Fold this sequence. Notes:
The chain has helices at 13-25, 73-85; strands spanning 4-9, 28-34, 43-44, 47-51, 65-68, 93-94, 99-100, 105-106, 111-112, 117-118, 123-124, 129-130, 135-136, 141-142, 147-148, 153-154, 159-160, 165-166, 171-172, 177-178, 183-184, 189-190. It is an alpha/beta fold. It folds into 2 domains: 4-91, 3-Layer(aba) Sandwich (Rossmann fold), CATH 3.40.50.20; 92-190, UDP N-Acetylglucosamine Acyltransferase, domain 1 (3 Solenoid). The strands form 4 sheets. The chain has a 6-stranded parallel β-sheet, with helices on one face. The relative contact order is 0.11.
Amino acid sequence: xxxxxxxxxxxxxxxxxxxxxxxxxxxxxxxxxxxxxxxxxxxxxxxxxxxxxxxxxxxxxxxxxxxxxxxxxxxxxxxxxxxxxxxxxxxxxxxxxxxxxxxxxxxxxxxxxxxxxxxxxxxxxxxxxxxxxxxxxxxxxxxxxxxxxxxxxxxxxxxxxxxxxxxxxxxxxxxxxxxxxxxxxxxxxxxxxxxxxxxx
Length: 200
């Protein structure tokens, strides 16, 4: 069975991590990167920088799926919207050392990195980053373009709003809901007594 040809938007640290996870999964062959800050002709591990992000339409014939591997939630959403409008198909990348329950839902354009766990009937939206060592426990919900930093933890039944960011080591107690676009500090813990559902 032939591998899916993957274009990675973003050649920085997260982009390289996602590209590596894609290759290690055995499902993809990374055929190129798009990045506004790198020069055409440069290479990452022998894979070429094809151009800036706005050149994506020029490369339509060489790839099957694309993933936007940019950590900034606002920029990631914008780029994914541009790609969706242009009719591109998004990949789901799951590192082979991650665990995603067969009953969980994983949205298109999302990446689940090494050591992460996505539990029973959890729901992970479009364009979500589930970083290394993250736990999204049973029935937790991560809305579109959420970002869970390294070792962040969502207990069962929690909810992370659209475009919200849990920085490294942050944690949600059972049933906690975090409002869209919220940012949790590294190591911050939110329990059920603290209502963060209305924070901007």
